[in-house]
Write a structure and sequence with these properties.
With about 450 residues, the protein is an alpha/beta fold. It has three domains: about 30 residues; about 325 residues, SGNH hydrolase (Rossmann fold); about 55 residues, no CATH class. About 45% of the residues lie in helices and about 10% in strands. It has 15 helices and eleven strands. It has a five-stranded parallel sheet with strand order 6-5-7-10-11, with helices on both faces. A two-stranded antiparallel ribbon has the order 1-2. A two-stranded antiparallel sheet has the order 3-4. β8 and β9 form a beta hairpin. The longest helix is centred in the last third of the chain and has 44 residues. The protein is globular and about 90 Å long.
Amino acid sequence: MPTNATLPKLTKSQPSANVGQGLWARLLKNCIWISAALVVILCATELLLSAAHIGEEELVDIVPVVGFWHRPNRLITWRSEGYSQSRTSADGLRDVDFTVAKPAGVRRIAIVGDSMTEAYQVDPKDTFVKLLETKLNKPGQPKVQVMNFGMSCLSTTQALYLFNERIARYSPDVCVLAYHVGDNEKNLYAPGADAFMPRPYSLIDSDGQLKTDWHCYDTWMNGKSRKAYYSTEWLRSNSRLWGVLTKVDLQLSSNAIYAQIKTAVLSVLPSSQDDKTAITTKSVDRITLTTADVGVAPFKSSLEYAKLPPVKEVPFVMPPNLSKKQAAQVLAARGAGPAWRANLTNSAQRFTVAGAIIETLNKACERQNCKLMVAALPAPNNSMLYFRELHLMEKVAARAGFAFVNVNSAFPSLAPMQESDLYYNIHFTPKGHALVADTLLKALQQNQLVQP
């Protein structure tokens, strides 16, 4: 039997220092493998998106004064409503490159408007801008250049500044403002409007003078949105995946909860010392068009363009034999009567601002030896408020002496949600663009702005 002296000693095991080191080494190795796998997945995703031309709708560039404009020399593959693939010019037009100096013997027509003019839903050659150019030129004898200055969401205020900043230097002979439904509202600042995109707004002050409201513009240029924009410059320029995420962001921008989350994220971004385009109201006033520059007459906001015919009140009689639900619907419709009249009055008052902007644009054109024509593009939803604006627009044109054409008259009247081969959804099909081009051609000829 062994004695205590011969028994092996039992000792308490001690953790080795190498065990902890091995754990951290494995963790680091796993992180490296995961990171490498993510890089491979992202690169593969980028290659696939690039090969399929997906995520190539990142077209907006933030620019001084106007607010936003197309990114220059950018390939855009568009899949919303229609389909197109085209490249912006060196100056950011959805068009070919033009020399700044106008060629001898050539007339130029600049068309400025929103997405209806920009028309990414169709090939560039199928837009009403290029169709009009084709119709104005004989084969082999290009004597007229029609330039596309369309930009999604462009307001009439921005069109005014765009003329001064970019269009005027091309020495156009004619400027066509393609006015569209909603342009009236885009001129006026409302709390929360365009929180993530800078743009100048307009107002008429207490003295009846048209003024530019730079509040939203300055807030963006000196806030978190601008810092976030420039911190993602490389991604916006090179990443198709970022383009996809931007598209998703645009689709969700109208969601109130998403907007609050996005605002909260932007609020915690670190401060930036980047002053690439820090622009204040003072510097803008020095370098851009002002009311005094174009000599616009004082424009009083006393409903000069907004006098509406009185609405005749009809005694209301409840139809007999209605259920409670039907009676409630009739009363609801009855209540919409005063609201509708109020909307008409408010729309007309807002158009006072739009009328002043267009008069100012006309003065700016006159200073450049350029003729203005306003073309009211058709509204597929047959908005009665919009049609009322166009009646007021005729008065503005008669007063200021510029040409006006209502393209709505060439398009059929559609019921709400009624389909038409002239529209995809909101924007024109190639057939719709062809009809607009024909109407503009006749109007230009009738107003002696081009040769018949």
